[in-house]
């Protein structure tokens, strides 16, 4: 699991300027990280992902959520302190893969973060393409995967799990 870089990105609005600047410079270089979430652990969202998204919401750029068929809850976004005018959702479309959509969005430089929900492990080639796109767009790409989707893979379960009831 690739979450080691994410810890430096998890900042709150009350952090000292130096920590916030460090977070901004890390994101400015572009980063791809993967989060394995558990539907049974809602506290992890509040502790890790939400502060990161709130911090990124202070930037002038958008946040793009490439979600499965669920629709983001406007009420949840407001309660969570995320900027409604900077959050864009695009449900899954069969015409383009989520990885391809993430690459195109990251390359534009229009988004501070692009979250993409994937059911399966991606290849090293796709991971490298995502990293290059994130670097060129100076953005953060988050690959979101349910722990249920990794039970069938050969990958060990040794990573951080977060809850994804961010949408209903």
The proportion of residues forming helix, as a percent range, comes to 25-40%
Largest sheet: 6 strands, parallel
The whole-number mean of residue pLDDT values reads 76
Report strand order across the widest sheet: 3-2-4-5-1-6
Topology:
Blueprint lengths: L5 H4 L7 H12 L2 E7 L5 H14 L5 E6 L6 H6 L7 E5 L6 H11 L2 E7 L6 H14 L2 E7 H4 L10 E2 L6
Parallel strand pairs: 1-5, 1-6, 2-3, 2-4, 4-5
Helix pairs in contact: 5-6
Report on the architecture of this protein.
The protein contains 7 helices and 6 strands. β2, α4 and β3 form a beta-alpha-beta unit. Residues 1-23 and 156-163 have low confidence and may be disordered. Strands 3-2-4-5-1-6 form a 6-stranded parallel β-sheet. It is globular and about 35 Å long. The protein has helices spanning 6-9, 17-28, 43-56, 74-79, 98-108, 124-137, 147-150, and strands at residues 31-37, 62-67, 87-91, 111-117, 140-146, 161-162. It has 168 residues and is an alpha/beta fold.
